């Protein structure tokens, strides 16, 4: 079974529990905190994944290092340690965020543009696509200097390509496909 499938199962279980308890936001913030700490302190991540270190010592460190965690998040971390799957923490957090966003009606939009977008442009773009999709959007801007102009917007598995490069390619295809006669 793939790591993504396994991580999704843990995320779904935690999501269902957090939703039932009304703690979606709190658990998401706690997972973000754990992932950010593990990224900031690579020695901690190495120590937690070291097979030579006793699981109970790892649990004690987690309990000490993350004292403010809810019982649900802490129990997830302990379960991952028991099963030797602590390497899935960041993937579980990612999957959890997707589930929580979906429950809130929020979608991630990745907007590719030739130049960085201003906050106002991001807001205006979000408003247009929110009306079209019926979801609240969180916009991330990616700059691609190869883009001649226009935008490419990806929301989930949907792609809206309004780039000048694509328009020129389509125009060229129309021209070469046109018969003169």
UniProtKB/TrEMBL annotation:
This protein's record includes keyword Cell membrane: yes
Membrane protein topology class: Peripheral membrane protein
Subcellular location: Cell membrane; Membrane
Signal peptide location: none
InterPro entries: ATP_synth_OSCP/delta_N_sf, ATPase_OSCP/d_CS, ATPase_OSCP/dsu
GO cellular component: plasma membrane; proton-transporting ATP synthase complex
GO molecular function, one term: proton-transporting ATP synthase activity, rotational mechanism
UniProt main location, coarse: membrane
Function: This protein is part of the stalk that links CF(0) to CF(1). It either transmits conformational changes from CF(0) to CF(1) or is implicated in proton conduction.
Family that this chain belongs to: Belongs to the ATPase delta chain family.
Record protein name field: ATP synthase subunit delta
Native organism: Planifilum fulgidum
Gene name for this UniProt entry: atpH
């Amino acid at each position: 079974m793939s790591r993504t499938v396994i991580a999704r199962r843990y995320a779904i279980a935690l999501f269902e529990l957090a939703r039932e308890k009304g703690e979606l936001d709190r658990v998401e913030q706690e997972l973000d905190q754990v992932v950010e700490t593990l990224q900031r302190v690579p020695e901690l991540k190495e120590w937690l994944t070291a097979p030579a270190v006793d699981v109970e010592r790892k649990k004690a460190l987690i309990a000490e290092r993350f004292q403010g965690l809810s019982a649900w998040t802490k129990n997830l971390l302990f379960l991952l340690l028991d099963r030797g799957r602590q390497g899935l923490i960041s993937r579980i957090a990612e999957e959890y965020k997707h589930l929580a966003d979906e429950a809130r009606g929020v979608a991630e939009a990745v907007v590719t543009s030739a130049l960085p977008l201003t906050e106002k442009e991001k807001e205006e773009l979000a408003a247009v696509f929110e009306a079209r999709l019926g979801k609240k959007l969180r916009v991330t801007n990616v700059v691609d200097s190869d883009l001649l102009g226009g935008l490419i917007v990806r929301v989930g598995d949907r792609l809206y390509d309004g780039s000048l490069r694509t328009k020129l390619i389509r125009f060229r295809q129309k021209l070469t496909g046109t018969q003169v006669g």
